[in-house]
Amino acid sequence: MRERKECILPLVRHCLEFFGNKNGLKKRLSQSVCNALQNYSYPGNVRELMNICERVVVMSETELIDLSDLPLEIVGRDEDFVAAQTGWCEGVGLQQVMNQVEHRILSQVMEKYFNQVDMAEALGVTQATIARKMKKHGLKRNR
């Protein structure tokens, strides 16, 4: 596989379809995942690729498989990956990063839960905390 990089994506797509059909799931890859899979060295060769595909099909929570769904040995400790996962990059303070993460989490939870009580329960805080943080971040429920 190291010598035939052009075969990796067609093989990955075949495996995704195979494991998706087997588990009744439909998955697709983000461009960053395609790049990471093509740049990986595959010490375990095709068997390793098949295991990776089965893992991401079964374990990813969304239809779109992203870098966070891949094992760390594939994405490595790349600075861009760390920045994408944490929201941190050089020159950004901790409070700003924490606010970004808090906003992102609240936005995601708002999509899943329809009221502040359920949101609070899911996040392990009080409804008053959810109300205060939503106000702080300017988040409103669209009805």
Overview of this structure, please?
The protein has 143 residues and is an all-alpha fold. The chain has 2 domains: 5-76, Helicase, Ruva Protein, domain 3 (Orthogonal Bundle); 87-136. Helices cover 62% and strands 3% of the residues. It contains 8 helices and 2 strands. A two-stranded parallel ribbon has the order 1-2. Helix 1 crosses helix 3 (45-59). The protein is elongated, with a radius of gyration of 19 Å.
Give me some keywords for this one.
single chain; 143 residues; mainly alpha; Helicase, Ruva Protein, domain 3; 2 domains; two-stranded parallel sheet; 8 helices; 2 strands
List the helices and strands and how they pair.
Elements: H1 8-23, E1 28-29, H2 31-39, H3 45-59, E2 64-65, H4 72-75, H5 79-86, H6 94-112, H7 116-123, H8 127-136
Parallel strand pairs: 1-2
Helix pairs in contact: 1-3, 6-7, 7-8
* Helix and strand run: HEHHEHHHHH
Average pLDDT, rounded to a whole number, is 83
Q: How would a crystallographer describe the biggest sheet?
A: 2 strands, parallel
Percentage of β-strand residues:
under 5%
The total count of strands amounts to 2
Give the N-to-C terminal Cα separation.
51 Å
Number of domains: 2
Provide a count of the helices: 8
CATH topology name of the largest domain? Helicase, Ruva Protein, domain 3
Question: Given this structure, which CATH class of the largest domain is correct?
Answer: Mainly Alpha
How much helix, percentage-wise, in residues?
55-70%
Structural class: mainly alpha
Low-confidence stretches are none
Main sheet: strand order: 1-2
Shape summary? elongated
Q: What is the correct CATH architecture of the largest domain?
A: Orthogonal Bundle
In angstroms, what is the radius of gyration? 19 Å
